Amino acid sequence: MASFVLGAVGSIFGGPLGGIVGSLVGGIIDQALFGTTKHVYGPRLSDLNQITGGSPGEAIKRVRGKVRVTGTPIYSSGLVEVETTTTSGSKFNKVKTTTYSYYVNTAILISKGPIAKVHQIYADKKLIYNIDDDTPYSIMDSVSIYLGSEDQEADSVLSAANSDCPAYRGRAYVVFSKLQLATLGNHFPSFEFVISTESTVTVADIVSDILTYNGVPSSVNNAAALSTDWTPATVTGFAIASAQTGREAINLLQDFYLFSGADVNGTLTYRRRSRSPDYSVYEKDMGSYQSADDRPP
User: Domain residue spans in the chain?
Assistant: First the structure.
């Protein structure tokens, strides 16, 4: 290079001082002939295997009606890094900039199936899918939605990663192909889904479903009266989102809809609390008494 040659010549004819002058002059000529290039690097992630949400033994959600639930990751490719280098500036003053972007292929479990629709999908509270919007979403290449039927096939993205992947029949889930993470803070987001199982669901439907799921035969449970005890008896939606017992799930409903259950002639029967009683139990028939009184006969 010119700076090296002229620096050496300056040292021969001018000693150390001449060498310095020669190097300076050579540097100027070098820049004039060849220019300079500066390389700038953008932020880069060190952990590409990050994943949030889900844990072994987590309960699969069961839903009725229209609800918003969180999703559970069941597959992730890990964050895939894409390196992009661009050049800007003039011929003699170039700047190379290298940036890093990330995407992920992932599958997210929603709930027990079958369900009817997935209305919206949110990633870190950001809307990324809306069933009523036909506009393509640039944040991902594609999203495949499986409603949890018993005959659904395995997903092609998951099959490409593992030829033995299951079809998750009876489970509602979605698969994102190349979900871009730049607008999501370059990290694996948490997902929420607005889903529905049917257009109309009643308190009686939900109670009957809980009882049947927990092994109480329909022949010995009677929640049908809840549909006639008050109008309207419809519920927007209900989700059992954790490992709740049947009793706990029904108790939660009772807090909102004020109904009670009792064994009536061997049948578990549920009725609204504000209606007329089926029968009355008088104090003399209860086998109890106040401490200051004599025990009843």
Answer: 2-34, 62-196, 201-283
